[in-house]
């Protein structure tokens, strides 16, 4: 029984990479060899699948945080920056056009 628990612990360590199908196969093998009962197997599958989901969510969250952290430290040109620059450029173009119109009126 201790060996079965140890195996389940080892499974849990790398669980985020496992599919529910693989978990079912591993637990079925433990049930077939008599290491655990069917009820323990069902509970183990539920626990392992839930733990896998939690680890996957946690990993995705950590990756997202690292990406956000890295991009906030980097000097990237964002869409917001682009829109602000376009807006400023539009204002400058308007000013240049106004100056040209005044110049035309002055030199006529």
Automatic annotation (TrEMBL):
InterPro entries: PhaF_PhaI. Residues 42-102 form a coiled coil. Keywords: Coiled coil. It comes from the Archaea. This is Polyhydroxyalkanoate synthesis regulator phasin. It comes from Methanosarcina lacustris Z-7289.
């Amino acid at each position: 029984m201790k060996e079965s628990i140890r195996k389940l612990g080892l499974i849990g360590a790398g669980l985020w990479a496992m599919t529910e199908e693989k978990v079912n196969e591993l637990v079925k093998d433990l049930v077939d060899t008599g290491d655990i009962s069917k009820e323990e197997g069902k509970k183990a599958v539920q626990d392992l699948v839930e733990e896998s989901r939690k680890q996957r969510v946690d990993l995705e969250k950590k990756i997202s945080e690292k990406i956000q952290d890295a991009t906030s430290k980097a000097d990237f040109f964002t869409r917001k920056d682009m829109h602000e620059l376009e807006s400023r450029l539009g204002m400058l173009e308007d000013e240049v056009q106004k100056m040209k119109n005044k110049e035309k009126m002055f030199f006529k």
